[in-house]
Amino acid sequence: KPAIARLLTDRSPGVRCAACEALGKLGDADDVPALVALLSDKDADVRAAVCDALSEIGSPRAVDALIERLQDANYQVRWAACDALGALGDPRAVPALAQRLNDPKSDVRVAACEALANIGDPQAIPYLEAHLESRSHTLRKSARRAIERIQARRRKKRRS
Q1: Banded pLDDT at 27 (limits 50, 70, 90)
Q2: Does residue 19 have a pLDDT over 90?
Q3: CATH topology match: 1-81 vs 89-160
Q4: How far apart are CA 27 and CA 120, in angstroms?
Q5: DSSP output for 50-112
């Protein structure tokens, strides 16, 4: 594993991406700080690979750094950050994910809806409801589906 961690600083973005993928598969929370440091890599593919790895590791220590990546200049990194935050399920991400519902890229808006649904926090519902009348059919549908999933989770919790 130390050999993989050393590859995080390799000159080649492809090697850095592969190292991120390997560390993600290993799933060791001790690797989170090294991966978080790589979220500022100049290569967008590497930043997206870090988001994926952090998602696989599942440590809440990555939440704040992933929230910052929601502002990334590259939409694929914003998408990957949404996906990772949804997988982590931490309600602290809800306000930042709600802002991505207005992202210029449709893929990111849909990923934000999915992430909010995966987190399942009812505080996301008003943000999603604000997009039920969107001009974008895809966003309307994604927001409606996310609301339904959150409400279903609430009903299920009440019954148990």
Answers
A1: very high
A2: yes
A3: yes
A4: 24
A5: HHHHHHHHT-GGGHHHHHHHTT-SSHHHHHHHHHHHHHHT-GGGHHHHHHGGG-SSHHHHHHH
Q: What angle, 0 to 180 degrees and rounded to 10, lies between the N-to-C axes of helices 44-57 and 13-26? A: 10
Nearest-angstrom CA–CA distance, 60 and 71 = 19
Which CATH number fits the domain 1-81, given the four candidates 2.60.40.2550, 1.20.1340.10, 1.25.10.10, 1.10.10.10? 1.25.10.10
Prediction pTM value: 0.94
- If phi > 0 it is left, if psi is from -120 to 50 it is alpha, else beta; for residue 6 that is alpha
The neighbour count for residue 133, using CB atoms within 10 Å, is 9
Domains in the chain: boundaries: 1-81, 89-160
Query: What CATH class has 89-160?
Result: mainly alpha
Instruction: State pLDDT tens for residues 95-119.
Output: 999 999 999 999 999 999 999 999 9
Q: How far apart are CA 151 and CA 22, in angstroms?
A: 36
Closest Cα partner for 99 from 40, 144, 85, 54?
85
Residue 30: how many CB atoms within 10 A of its CB?
A: 12
